[in-house]
What we know:
By secondary structure, the chain is α+β, with helices and mostly antiparallel strands. It is 20% helix and 42% strand.
Amino acid sequence: MNKLMEIINEIGLPFAYSHFAEGESPNPPFMVYLFSKNKHFGADGVVFYKNTQIDLELYTDKKDLKLEEKIEEILDREKIYYEKSEVWIESERLYEVLYEFTLNLKITEVNNG
């Protein structure tokens, strides 16, 4: 969990787990992160590694290649393999750039930025 928080803090944007409370969403750009699913590794009924898929969502009101490059440089430096996708959310008038990756997390509490 510490590694994830270090990455998010280094990016330097407002962030929250899952979503911001209604009316408290900051102006873009901002980020949201989720623990979307467990991707454990095991055999013979025993879990050897408890991995968690992280969805790191970047929201911007305009395409920001420099910000995406900064995020990708941080993930690359940390040797985190990620998948990236993008969608335009018409109703919100925001781009969502999604980074999906897996980390071995020891979760003690969720930080809401």
